Amino acid sequence: MLFSSPRHPVLDTHRHSTLDPSFRSPNGICTAEKNVGMRIIKIVAILALVQGVGGILRAFQWIDVGGDLMGQGLFLLPLTGAIAIARGAFIAVIALSFILFACGLLLEQGWAKWLGIVVAVINLLLVFSLLMQGESLARAVPWVVIPALILIYLTANGEQELGGNR
After folding, report:
1. How far is residue 138 from each of residues 104, 129, 135, 151, measured CA to CA in Å?
2. pTM, 2 dp
3. What is the pLDDT of residues 45-92, one digit of tens each?
4. What are the residue ranges spanned by the domains of the chain?
5. Nearest one of 154, 99, 119 to 163, comparing CA atoms
6. SS3 (DSSP) at 164
7. Distance CA 71, CA 64 (A)
């Protein structure tokens, strides 16, 4: 009868469920809140990976255009091609930074928060610059949504640490 008693403090699994908000871990954090926080972190990391992969594909486009222009003309078109390749390389660095941010976020690294803020702000400034140069809003909005969501998430947490300080 001892093992079937629902009131036994050690064997009562319903009381120690991680979904029960009344159950707190030894450090005082509600495990249900921690699970929700981890889900949000995973969603933000997936969004950052999507932004990074999209940025890498965009960078390959710029590098391809630059390579095509390098083989034409004497001076002006190869110079324009070199500028396009440099722009593609810069976009690739930003995209790889988003992927690094996602990995750091999933591994709960302390530097991930600041990398995410810096990369999101740089990306938003680049898109704003494109809008000032005459890019259509419809083509610019997809590049704004994910960095804006990441920036809102990272700044809304205030002083709360996203991970350990490793």
Report:
1. 31, 15, 9, 21
2. 0.74
3. 999 999 999 999 999 999 999 999 988 888 899 999 999 999 999 999
4. 37-156
5. 154
6. strand
7. 12
